[in-house]
Write a structure and sequence with these properties.
The protein is mostly beta strands. The chain has a domain of 88 residues: 3-layer Sandwich (Rieske Iron-sulfur Protein), CATH 2.102.10.10. A three-stranded antiparallel beta sheet has the order 1-9-8, with no helix packed on it. A three-stranded antiparallel beta sheet has the order 2-3-4, with no helix packed on it. Bound molecules: FE2/S2 (inorganic) cluster.
Length: 129
């Protein structure tokens, strides 16, 4: 009997449950990708979920100084505590600040039943984990 040569689908990591985050809330998580640990943030914005690597596009630093505090006071934008780069929650695009026009690195997520699963992002040419 011949074994299937198709690769098994990558297994995601459960990072949250559906309904866990309300609008303007975030949750940090860690993923092990290609031997390295990356920190991510799950973002709830207007009923939808988004996930990004917690690394500013200005300088490779975490966005939050206060643990898990990513949103502006009005819950409209994600903001970097270091120098104020301001990002659109739905796209990760920097719309104000020193990295204007750059994008946070996205983390693929999928909802499976009540679970929210995160998967390792594809490393791009000029980005390491
Ligand atoms: S490190 Fe984020 S704005 Fe400078």
């Amino acid at each position: 009997m011949e074994r299937s040569k198709t690769k098994a689908p990558p297994r995601g990591k459960v990072i949250a449950r559906t309904g866990e985050l309300s609008h303007g809330k975030t949750k940090k998580f860690r993923l092990r990708c290609q031997g390295q640990t990356i920190e991510g943030l799950l973002v709830s914005y207007q009923g939808n979920l988004f996930a990004y690597v917690n690394r500013c596009r200005h300088i490779s630093l975490s966005l939050d100084w206060v643990e898990n505090h990513f949103f502006t006071e009005d819950n409209r934008y994600i903001i970097c505590a270091n120098h104020g780069a301001t990002y659109e929650p739905t796209t990760g695009e920097c719309i104000w600040g020193p990295c204007y026009g750059a994008f946070l690195q996205g983390v693929p997520i999928r909802v499976s039943g009540q679970k929210i699963l995160a998967f390792c992002p594809e490393p791009s040419e000029n980005e390491a984990y």
